């Protein structure tokens, strides 16, 4: 076969299992019309996986199924899977499913000569025809080996059975116990060559993890890793470590963080569907910022899912009320949904699966996880990282904005490294830290990174006030940034200086005014002096005139008195 | 139902063995089984046995009802308890043990 790498190329026809995750890693399901072998040790979930394959087929894909149980009776099976929400009786009543028990009791049977398994074929054929089955499960075929002595006959009959199943065109799942060093105890894998899935259940540090691996899948390419899987109240789910491709939609829409200044620092908010990490030491206000984001989300009319692993919902509501953030209305109208459990309550896989379930059910636009640090208690760092990777991928694929809170335990060296080493998964990282200066601790905030955003590179002091979170500029002085009361002192100092400057200017202005007034007065005085001198001059002039006139008069008088040719002169002057 | 009555039917005689042979079509194995069975009965149960041959291809529902997996299967319905022998009965000794016509311990 020519190796095909292009996923769009037509692969063999597949029957979707409807099991979460399994269809992703198999590229669409099990090979249609062919048998698939599911092997694993006792109690690893073979029967359940096979049953879910049938039930989903009958309920979701319109493909009725037949379940041949060699070990359990229909009543037992029905009771066992009822807890998973599968109602076998109902499906049987609607002719969507046949569950038949093949009873083989060694003590009742004596072999005397050649035989075949035609009886099994007839029963299988009848059951298939009864509901028009497209899917068949044989669980566990190896029981046959315990029931009959003649192995040679059994093997040839099994070969015939698989050929017969293929001829009938049914998609079959055959379960088998794992053998010692082999996939199956009886070497069934040699008959089923199309698809082999191995299930495993192992304990690691007292935590059990179930894993699934596709050993082979002829004619298609598939995920080859071991994938953790879970069995919970919704059945079987396989959790791909990461999705096979990175093809999330990248939204250009920005969503507000609910804090104006923070939005400004991030050039308008964070992109929708990205992941935000708020990291910081204890009491730096991570939860408060997250609560603001949650409130902003609800205010936009979008649902918010809040995982609170350390506080109860009521505690969160009360604490946020103390900073003037009332989440209660959103909580009451269902826009805000809290999930509060202790992280140690479940294993990591269980956590992830329940989270997926919540998210699928609630379909939120924002998910807050407060904090992720506690997961490390439950799993190893590697597992925690893998889990968070899957969570981030899952949220991104659904265009959900994620807010992760990470508690950093002291030590400056660790400040910019998260314990989970998830910074590469994070799009926007906001670091909160204590600034200890002048005998007090204050909160500083900076944006370490924000992909695709021209974010601010400045440190902001952030305050938890009675009306919410507030961001303030910090003062950068010779001894570093100033915050808190030192900042207040600095502010006061600056105010004082400004006041002093203002007063100096006013003083100067008054002085100049005064000078001008003085000068004006001097000008006025000089002008007055000049005027008085002019007046004096005029007086002098008029006095002179008077003197002149008098002299003339006197001369005339004298001339008159002298009576010298005065007559004519007198007449002239008169 | 293809049945052979060696004993008149309807007599609930406790001594009468009621045997049922399940086959699927007229295969060599089924023919062989029937022949061998008749031989065994004539030898050990002459006159007090009844053989009923059921072809599951004609009556497939009986396969489930009577829990038949292997073909041919011989079921001893009476006397109690029910015994099953599978195969073409060519191994007479095992067939006799299966039908409890000889004690299992005899060499």
Automatic annotation (TrEMBL), chain A:
Keyword set includes Repeat: yes
Entry's Gene Ontology molecular function annotations: ATP binding; hydrolase activity; protein serine/threonine kinase activity
InterPro entries for this protein: AAA+_ATPase, Circadian_clock_KaiC-rel, KaiC, KaiC-like_dom, KaiC_dom, KaiC_N, P-loop_NTPase
Enzyme class: transferase
Compositional bias of kind Polar residues: 1-10
Region described as Disordered: spans on this chain: 1-26
EC number: 2.7.11.1
Keywords: Coiled coil, Hydrolase, Kinase, Phosphoprotein, Repeat, Transferase
Positions of the KaiC domain: 13-252, 253-490
Recorded coiled-coil stretches: 488-543
Protein name: non-specific serine/threonine protein kinase
Source species taxonomy: Bacteria, Pseudomonadati, Myxococcota, Polyangia, Nannocystales
Gene: kaiC
UniProtKB/TrEMBL annotation, chain B:
GO biological process: rhythmic process
Domain of life: Bacteria
Pfam families documented for this protein: KaiB
Protein name: Circadian clock KaiB family protein
Residue ranges occupied by any KaiB domain in the UniProt entry: 20-101
Chain ranges passing through the membrane: none
Family annotation (SUPFAM superfamilies): Thioredoxin-like (SSF52833)
